[in-house]
């Protein structure tokens, strides 16, 4: 479903990813862990086309993200190509990023209506179902600023799912939440992970959450994968010293 | 109930002899101010200044710097007196006036638009990308509605600036409020009274603009949830639960 080939990413002089190869199967749930600055979030941002690769290629469902064919040549992707590949991908952000100029319902329906051309009534029906699923059925007409952080993040999850993505990217989705709101969002994501066939790519510092939802865990450091394996293996008997150090630091925090 | 027409020549004393002329002038002043060109220019140029394409940004930049950096009066002389000499095409004086004011204050306006658009948090655009909006849709449905709130207060200043700058049009013999005032004084009306009336009328007009813009600002703030329109209703609902 997702394939990184020798992907490099530099911001100015800073190399964030180097020669990164990995792939994710359809329906697979993968968690990226590692110290901050190790390039995890950059991977999600590259997939969402918020950043462009410096070198290498990324394929999603066989389609290249960064380039397209024109005649026999590979040329950088134009906006039309990008919109085509983005259709398959959804993202939930650390800071929720709900649109403050729209109410909750509108936040969820606006993109399906505008970007996919779904009739508004149909989009609203779907949105109400999603709101029920995230346990906010009564908040359709509330304004984002009237919601708690946890509620806002649940709306953001509903909003991403309304686009019916095949791949969902979760970028530290509970990091900005007050501690008592974290479990609500995590439980929701657990349910979504276990009932759907979404391909999930998740960056998190919550190791219990990572253990619960993922098939596979990738440990990153300095833009490279230092270790990968099942959650059981990574969390109980990590092979690399770097992983042990990291887990020790996180779990004792 | 007695209604008094403030423009009537029947008014007692100096008022009766001056107000009809000042009212004519006020109309012309309003006409020149409501030419609308400031906003019409500010929005597109301001957006151009935030473009991804360097060439587009450069065009906007050159326009903004040029018209901000030269005097309105000189621009007015160019449009009205110098351009006909160069091109043989004579503009109507009010039109030339509206155009010069629009180009000049529009340059400031584009700076306001640019600043407001840039001030929308990056996460908002990124969320819009992630939801697969097209670049136009991102601007239209996500960025501009949020930027608009930021634009209103500085635009209020600008519109008042514009109103006052219309007095420069008297330099190309547009019969605006300031021009009528000077005519009256030259033809023997009491200077103090005429100039006091001028002050009062300009102030009234700009205060009207402020009132209007405050209304717009409140509406806009409500749209992005800075103020909660149904706060009281929401609290009542909360209490009822």
TrEMBL record, chain A:
Keywords: Amino-acid transport, ATP-binding, Cell membrane, Membrane, Nucleotide-binding, Transport. It is a peripheral membrane protein. The keyword Transport applies. It comes from the Bacteria. Its main location: membrane. GO terms for molecular function: ABC-type amino acid transporter activity; ATP binding; ATP hydrolysis activity. Pfam families: ABC_tran. Residues 2-247 form the ABC transporter domain. The keyword Ion transport does not apply. It is found in: Cell membrane. GO terms for cellular component: plasma membrane. Belongs to the ABC transporter superfamily. NCBIfam families: ectoine_ehuA. PANTHER family: AMINO ACID IMPORT ATP-BINDING PROTEIN (PTHR43166), GLUTAMATE_ASPARTATE IMPORT ATP-BINDING PROTEIN GLTL (PTHR43166:SF9). This is Polar amino acid transport system ATP-binding protein. It comes from Microbispora rosea.
Automatic annotation (TrEMBL), chain B:
It is found in: Cell membrane. Residues 26-210 form the ABC transmembrane type-1 domain. The keyword Transmembrane applies. SUPFAM superfamilies: MetI-like. Pfam families: BPD_transp_1. GO terms for biological process: amino acid transport. Keywords: Amino-acid transport, Cell membrane, Membrane, Transmembrane, Transmembrane helix, Transport. The chain crosses the membrane at residues 28-50, 62-82, 191-216. Its main location: membrane. InterPro entries: AA_ABC_transptr_permease_3TM (IPR010065), ArtM/GltK/GlnP/TcyL/YhdX-like (IPR043429), Ectoine_EhuC (IPR014342), MetI-like (IPR000515), MetI-like_sf (IPR035906). One of its GO terms (molecular function) is transmembrane transporter activity. Belongs to the binding-protein-dependent transport system permease family. This is Amino acid ABC transporter membrane protein 1, PAAT family. It comes from Microbispora rosea.
